[in-house]
Amino acid sequence: MANLGDVMDDVRWQGFVGRAAQVAAFDDALAGRSERRVLFVHGPGGVGKTTLLLYLRSRARRAGRRAVYLDGSALDPSPEGFVHAVQSADTGTAPVLLVDGYEHLAPIDGWLRRDLIPTLPADGVVVVAGRDAPAPAWRADLGWRGLVAVHCLGNLDEADSTALLERAGVAAPDREAIMRLGRGHPLALALLADAALTGTVPKTLADAPDLISALIASMVHDAPTDAHLVGLGTCAKVLLTTEDLLRRTVGDDAPRVWEWLRDRPFVTVRPHGLTPHDLTRAVLEAEFERRFPDRYRDLHRIIHDYVVTGLLTSSGTHRQLLAQQLAQLHREGPFSAQFRAVATDGTVALARARPEELPGAAELIGTHVGPRSAELAHGWFTERPAGASVVRVGDGIGGFVYHARCPSGSLTENQDPVIRAILDHVARTAPLRPGEQIDVSRFMFGHDGEQSDAYAVFAGSISSIIEWCGRPLAWAFIVSVEPSFWGPFFDYLAFREILEVTFDGRRHVVYGNDWRRFGVHAWLELMQEREQSGGTGPPPDCMQQPAPLSRDTFDAAVRAALPNLCRPDRLAASRLVGTHLGTDAAAVRTALRTAVDELAGLPRGDRLRAVLHRTYVSPAPTQEAAAEVLGLPFSTYRRHLAKAVDELTERLWAGETGQETTGD
How far apart are CA 280 and CA 278, in angstroms? Predict the structure, then answer.
């Protein structure tokens, strides 16, 4: 007579999805087609290990084999306790032994490997499932290497996730939202399916505290100390966790927390750091924000400042990693899902395009934008191939982006109607000053030629962060032929829609920002707030500077400010307030005095500093008196003063426009 256990087995049989590789390996072992009779399955909590073992038990029974399922968490972790549990199951000969929760049996791992499992019948099959990967001894021994197959149990793919929800009775309209939240995690999908059947699907994980609690209990062991808890929060917020970053968030506990995080079953070790699974990240972050909102905000600020400081001071590969870290912090941004889809494993990178890749890029531009655009692309690639970057996927290009630096006076720059419209706009509204340049993200697409492709989002985002934070710029512009897709993104970035150009039969919309009015540091500060709030719109007026000064106006403002170094009340009206020298009179005064002192570092700079110091910083009553104190004839003093003011102004202008300065 059938019992309820048989009914449950039937339900499991009908509802089981996925795990084809593990099921095939088990069937081969069961039928004697494979020598690998010990299957070791490992993965984080909630990933479906228990479900798989119970399903395999049903398969064994339907194949006429006696099978026993043991839960390691319910056993005495001793040889005697384990033997007693096996004997109590009365499995008879040729048993199929399925051991769940193997992490609880770590004290007898060696005994099981050396003493018990080797005594089982030759046609016996053992499946061990635990959160942690097997100890190295399981694979180091030559004999075991031929008998053990190790399977890391990951999340379900899209097809299996859909099948799971369909068999759970979830209506088709709700499946997409559930899959977006559940991200292939079986327990999450099951809990969300239950929520859909009994109520409504939450919009975010944070809207379902009970679900978060269940997932946290399933996936995460309790953090042993407060530092470990902060370490978990750090790991959840960033793309890749490094020990250097942990030193900023947990201090001297960083090495200990790093080792602990590295051993978590939901954390993967990458070449440049640690990364949790995407769902684990979302769950940890939602839990941390729910339980410790103030600490969560403080942690975000620490991580943001660490990333930004490195981004502004580093170069090469490290800068790109930090650019990806910064992009990861924008979890409330419009394209966070696309970025996660590409960068979640921390192995995707932006690289300089190879010469042989550029003709294909131009061809794609011709196909998806137009033939005249392809001709311009060829021109840009020929004149400045260094502006082209790609994301390589397998043997092909996943994403492509090209940055033009203008003005360059190149032939293509003069022929490109989009670039000409941009330069005309700048000339009309905020002319470039000598030495200033603009950056234009001119072409961008994914492997399919579309700008909305996830790899296009990745390439455009990372390359722009590197360009904008890597060197001084007067303006930044991005050209889009898919404004309905990119518009919300640039609204989030506080970039304005500047102009549009119809060219090649396509509408090219240009978004931009004048860095001289809304500088990189101010922009990064605004983004720090939007990383958490998801706010949009132009930058607040209080964060914007006055329109940039021309060279003549700047020189005149410096010359007018010097006599007022000892009169802060008069400096408040200086045109220099709002330039790179400072946002108020006190900052401008300090910057000018510092610049005067720095002249001493130039060849023959001591006399230039001395003349300015005695004239403006600690002034003598009159210029004649200053000349007398300096021991100079008045005509010589006047000549030295003019040269000193010219040199000071030149260096200050170089700082204003981001140019390098060198001494004579």
Answer: 5
Cα–Cα distance, 129 to 156 (Å, whole number): 17
For the four alpha carbons of 351, 357, 359 and 362, in that order, the dihedral sign comes to: negative
Tens-digit pLDDT profile for residues 300-333? 999 999 999 999 988 878 888 899 899 888 877 7
Distance, in Å, from the CA atom of 453 to the CA atom of 341, rounded to the nearest integer, reads 11
Rounded to whole angstroms, the Cα distance separating 657 from 552 reads: 13
Distances (CA, A) of 93 to 32, 48, 124, 189, 595: 16, 28, 8, 38, 89
- Give the H or E element holding residue 198: helix 186-198
- Tell me: the pLDDT tens digits for 564-597? 998 888 888 898 988 889 888 999 999 999 999 9
- Taken as a whole, the chain contains a residue count of 664
pLDDT at 92 over 60: no
Average pLDDT of the chain is: 88
Question: Strand 475-480 to strand 506-514: parallel, antiparallel, or no bridges (unpaired)?
Answer: antiparallel
The per-residue pLDDT for range 614-634, each reduced to its tens digit, is: 999 999 999 999 999 999 999
Residue 250 CB-half CA count within 13 A: 24
Contact 420, 407 (CB under 8 A): no
Bridge partners, residue 475, by sequence: 438, 514
**% of the chain exceeding 70 in pLDDT:** 94
pLDDT at 7: 57
Q: What is the sign, positive or negative, of the torsion defined by CA atoms of 292, 297, 298, 304? A: positive
Q: Which of 129, 131, 189, 187 is nearest to 159 (CA)?
A: 189
Q: What angle do CA 518, 509, 362 make, to 5 degrees?
A: 110
Through-space distance between the first and last CA atoms of the chain, rounded to whole angstroms: 101
How much is the average pLDDT of 19-43? 90
CA distance 491 to 497: 8
The span from the CA of 580 to the CA of 143, in Å, is 70
Q: Which of 597, 634, 598, 638 is nearest to 618 (CA)?
A: 597
Give the pLDDT score at 664: 41
Q: For residue 578, what are its two tokens? A: 């709002």
* Helix, strand, coil share of the chain (percent; to 5): 60, 15, 30
Long-range contacts of 285-289 (CB under 8 A, 24+ apart): 285/233, 285/236, 285/237, 285/331, 286/204, 286/205, 286/206, 286/212, 287/212, 287/213, 287/216, 288/232, 288/233, 288/236, 289/206
**pTM higher than the cut 0.85:** no
> What pLDDT, on the 0 to 100 scale, is given for residue 4?
57
Neighbours of 368 (CB within 10 A): 17
Rg for the chain, CA atoms, rounded: 33
